[in-house]
């Protein structure tokens, strides 16, 4: 039986195994998808040894950037993004498993956003500085949407600190994307600290979190009249892209 999975830590929030195993059952595919919570990427080598039927795996927080150091080859899109969320394991031609990294988050976010964005969503704020934020910014760049990053630890020119944000800055940026894990299960009572009073009816507030389905970030934005979107559609699109990568011949 072929095996696929997800690495990251923690993984209690993830719906990936539920999605893939339902797909396998419905389509009669002899495979299983498992969660592999790794407290450190130093455990990756032993994971590959313990699971010789592992064909590929997804990567989630906090390893989307760090995992790149462990790969034998990186796809151009992932290289340009600076983050990897999908890894294909190639075994047949090598004495040890070779790992090839890809990024399907970029397409997942771009395709899901394209379905709901309006003509006035031309300027965006991206909350976060991890691998998910890098994928969002790569997608926005490809879509021609001007964006600014917001980080707790801004270290590059043009990056806002949360303390820099004013209602006026929020008002100008009609698309706001939460690419942080703040508000994700089990910490569902948390929310990024932004001046929500700057949000109005023309705003689209997109939270990459999908568990819970409605975060406090989404709830507070919606209370200001904004349209909101969670990350479930993005998850499904990127998951299907991962499946195609794992099964390329």
From TrEMBL:
Domain Shikimate dehydrogenase substrate binding N-terminal, chain residue ranges per copy: 6-87
UniProt cross-references to InterPro entries, sorted A to Z: Aminoacid_DH-like_N_sf (IPR046346), NAD(P)-bd_dom_sf (IPR036291), Shikimate_DH-bd_N (IPR013708), Shikimate_DH_fam (IPR022893)
Keywords (A to Z) from UniProt: Amino-acid biosynthesis, Aromatic amino acid biosynthesis, Oxidoreductase
UniProt keyword Zinc-finger present: no
Pfam family name, one: Shikimate_dh_N
Gene3D superfamilies reported for this sequence: Leucine Dehydrogenase, chain A, domain 1, NAD(P)-binding Rossmann-like Domain
SUPFAM superfamilies: Aminoacid dehydrogenase-like, N-terminal domain, NAD(P)-binding Rossmann-fold domains
Molecular function per GO: NADP binding; shikimate 3-dehydrogenase (NADP+) activity
GO cellular component: cytosol
Metabolic or biological pathway, per its Swiss-Prot or TrEMBL entry: Metabolic intermediate biosynthesis; chorismate biosynthesis; chorismate from D-erythrose 4-phosphate and phosphoenolpyruvate: step 4/7
Domain of life: Bacteria
GO biological process: aromatic amino acid family biosynthetic process; chorismate biosynthetic process; shikimate metabolic process
Keyword Phosphoprotein in record: no
Designated name of the protein: Shikimate 5-dehydrogenase
Species annotation: Porphyromonas gingivalis (strain ATCC BAA-308 / W83)
Organism lineage string: Bacteria, Pseudomonadati, Bacteroidota, Bacteroidia, Bacteroidales
């Amino acid at each position: 039986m072929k095996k696929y999975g997800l690495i990251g830590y923690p993984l209690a929030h993830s719906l990936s195994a539920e999605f893939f195993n339902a797909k396998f059952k419905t389509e009669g595919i002899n495979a299983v998808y498992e969660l592999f919570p790794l407290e450190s990427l130093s455990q990756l080598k032993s994971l590959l040894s313990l699971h010789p039927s592992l064909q590929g795996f997804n990567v989630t927080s906090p390893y989307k950037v760090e995992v790149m150091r462990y790969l034998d080859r990186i796809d151009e899109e992932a290289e340009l993004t600076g983050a990897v969320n999908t890894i294909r394991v190639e075994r047949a031609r090598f004495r040890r498993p070779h790992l090839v990294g890809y990024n399907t988050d970029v397409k997942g976010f771009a395709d899901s956003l394209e379905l709901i964005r309006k003509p006035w969503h031309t300027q965006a704020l991206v909350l976060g500085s991890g691998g998910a934020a890098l994928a969002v910014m790569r997608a926005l760049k490809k879509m021609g949407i001007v964006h600014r990053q917001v980080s707790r630890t801004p270290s590059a020119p043009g990056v806002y600190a949360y303390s820099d944000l004013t209602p006026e800055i929020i008002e100008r940026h009609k698309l706001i994307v939460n690419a942080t894990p703040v508000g994700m299960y089990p910490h569902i009572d948390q929310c990024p600290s932004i001046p929500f009073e700057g949000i109005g009816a023309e705003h689209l507030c997109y939270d990459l979190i999908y568990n819970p389905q409605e975060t406090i970030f989404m709830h507070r934005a919606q209370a200001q009249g904004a349209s909101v979107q969670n990350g479930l559609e993005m998850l499904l699109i990127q998951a299907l892209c991962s499946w195609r990568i794992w099964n390329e011949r």
